[in-house]
Amino acid sequence: MLLDELAEKYETEDFIKDDPVRFGHRFKDKKDIEIASFMASLVAYGRRDIFTKKLDKLFEIADNKPLEFILNFEPEILGDFNYRFGKPKDFAEIFTILKELYTKDGGLEELFKYGYKTSENLFIPVCDYFYSRVKDAGQGFYFMIPNPRNGGAMKRMCMFLRWMVRKGPVDFGIWDFMPQSELLIPLDVHVARISREMGLLKRTTNDFKAVLELTENLKKLDPNDPVKYDFAMFGYGVNKPITK
User: Fold this and answer.
1) What CA–CA distance (Å, rounded) separates 72 from 65?
2) I need a surface site. Which of 42, 94, 122, 243 has the fewest CB within 10 A?
3) Each residue's pLDDT tens digit in the chain (244 positions)?
4) Could you tell me which residues are beta bridge partners of residue 152?
5) How far apart are CA 65 and CA 203, in angstroms?
6) Among candidate residues 205, 167, 212, the one with its CA nearest the CA of residue 185
7) Cα distance between residue 125 and residue 119, in whole Å
8) Is residue 198 classed exposed, middle or buried when 0-12, 13-18 and 19+ CB atoms within 10 A define those classes?
9) Rounded distance, CA 106 to CA 109, Å?
10) Is the dihedral of CA 184, 189, 190, 196 positive or negative?
11) Cβ atoms within 10 A of the Cβ of 187, count?
């Protein structure tokens, strides 16, 4: 089948170098990996060449020590660092909350595990943790940490969770509190368009209901690993560019 062939072709280590997942691959320590990956997921929107340059700058600020950066975070270290919607104060709020998470509440794995065990939509408790602690943030904060109750696709959160849970040459598979069969496809405009062209998605709005619909259809192809087709969607776009 075409999708299986494309998934196998593109899920290789060569995929890493041009993808935001590469930032987590700089590190060996589990907490460094998860923090670096979360930081990368926050700004993984827009033009890839631009946001990866921004991430290079952010990791320079962090001295390429993600855990140490978070544990010792103070807002002034960011200077004027920003990216599109995200202003310095938005990043400062997120990193300050991460500091509390890692010093008092275990870290991202514990937070996502709590979300998984207590809610049908694990993103609700995760984002509520941030919302309950935010003090002074603008639009950028709520864009980078979107509210699942609004019904959005939660693309970057789904992507981050895929990196952490799924095992493979690209994904880290360092969290084991949930099976990869329960992961949700990261839905962006590219994936949605291709899915509709292939008859895998009928819903016309790129929202969370579309994520659930597409993931369920992908489970029919591989019930144990539906999100592997994220690589296939990428490969399909490379092999057959969509024309207007």
Assistant:
1) 11
2) 243
3) 789 999 999 999 999 999 999 999 999 999 999 999 999 999 999 888 999 999 999 999 999 999 999 999 999 999 999 999 999 999 999 999 999 999 999 999 999 999 999 999 999 999 999 999 999 889 999 999 999 999 999 999 999 999 999 999 999 999 999 999 999 999 999 999 999 999 999 999 999 999 999 999 999 999 999 999 999 998 887 666 444 3
4) 207
5) 42
6) 212
7) 7
8) middle
9) 8
10) positive
11) 27
What is the three-class DSSP state of 128?
A: helix
**Distance between CA atoms of residues 98 and 92, nearest Å:** 10
Q: How many CB atoms lie within 10 A of CB 72?
A: 10
Name residue 90's amino acid: D
Q: How many CA atoms lie within 13 A of 95 on its CB side?
A: 27
Query: In 12-153, which ranges are E strands?
Result: none
- The answer to whether 221 and 7 have CB atoms below 8 angstroms apart is no
Contact (Cβ atoms closer than 8 angstroms) between residue 140 and residue 87? yes
Single-letter residue type at 224 = N
Task: Confirm if 92 and 82 have CB atoms less than 8 A apart.
Answer: no
d(CA 42, CA 160): 9
Contact 116, 178 (CB under 8 A): yes
**Can you tell me which residue has the tokens 């609700």?**
124
> DSSP letter string over 78-89?
GTT--BTTB-HH
Q: How many CB atoms lie within 10 A of CB 8?
A: 13
User: Is 11 in a helix, a strand, or coil?
Assistant: coil
